[in-house]
Amino acid sequence: MPERPTAVIACRVLQDLLGSRLADGVPTMWQDAGLHNTPKKMAAALQEHVDALTEPSNVIIGYGLCGNGLVGVKSREHTLIIPRIHDCVAMFLGSHQRYLQRFFANPNTYYLTKGWVDAKDEPLTDYLDYVRDFDQETADYLVEMKYRHYRKLCMVGFSEAELNSCRPAAMKVASFCKERFGMEYEEVIGTTELIDALLQQPAHLNEGNDVFVVVPPGGEVTMDMFLRAGEAAPPAAERQNR
User: Fold this and answer.
1) Residue 127's closest CA among 111, 115, 144, 114?
2) CA atoms within 13 A on the CB side of 200
3) Distance CA 158, CA 148 (A)
4) CA–CA separation, 148 vs 180, rounded Å?
5) d(Cα 161, Cα 108) in Å, to the nearest integer?
6) How far is CA 73 from CA 8, 110, 126, 183, in A?
7) What is the pLDDT of residues 171-197, one digit of tens each?
8) Residue 220's beta-bridge partner residues?
9) Is the pTM of this model over 0.70?
10) Cis peptide before 27 (omega within 30 of 0)
C-alpha cells in the first residue's frame, strides 16, 4: 500500500521553526496567530484547511489543544497527527512534561517567542490597538482584564543569537508589563525536540501514543484525546495562556 503524502496545518508563529524543517513541496497552510485569542474560531479555520486537501494525507497539526480550539475538527479521509499538549507553548519548551513543570512552578507566566514577537501578538501591541480602537478608559479595562493575572513574562529563544536579536522588542513589552502589571522578565533557551519528533511520521501513526494524538480517517478531535491517565482537564489559567 503506497505511503500517504504529508501535509501541514499550523500556526504562523511556527513558520520559522517548523517550516524550515519541511521537505520541498509539502503542502503547508499557515494560520493567523490571532486565532489563539479566539479559540472558538480555530476549529472552523482548521476544518476549512483539512477539507481543502484533495488527496488523503497524513496531516501534521501545529497546535496543542489551545483552549479547546481543536475540539470538533473532523479528519475526513485524512489522518491527523497532533502534539498531545494542552498549550502550544509546550512545543517551544520541547515536551508536555517540561511545560507542566514550568506551569506548576510559575502558573501565571505569559510566553513570548520570535514568532509571537514578529506577529505582534503580545500585551504591548494589544494595548496600543485598544487605544487606537476605543477610548482610553475602555483600553485600560480590556488590557487589565486580559493580562492582570500574569506575574511573569518569559521569552523563549532557540539560541543566544536569537535571544539577542529579539531582546530589543521583548524588552519593550517587558517594560510595559512590568510597569502595568508588575511582571518579572526572564529568558530561557527552548528546544525543537517535540517539533522534530512531530515530523518523524509515519512512526507516530499508532493510536494511543503518549506524545501525539492520532485521529484516524472518519474521526473527530475531542478534549479527552489530550488527557493522559488520571489527568484532569487543563486548569482555566492554563487554557487561556495562549
Assistant:
1) 144
2) 10
3) 28
4) 8
5) 27
6) 15, 27, 28, 36
7) 999 999 999 999 999 999 999 999 999
8) 74
9) yes
10) no
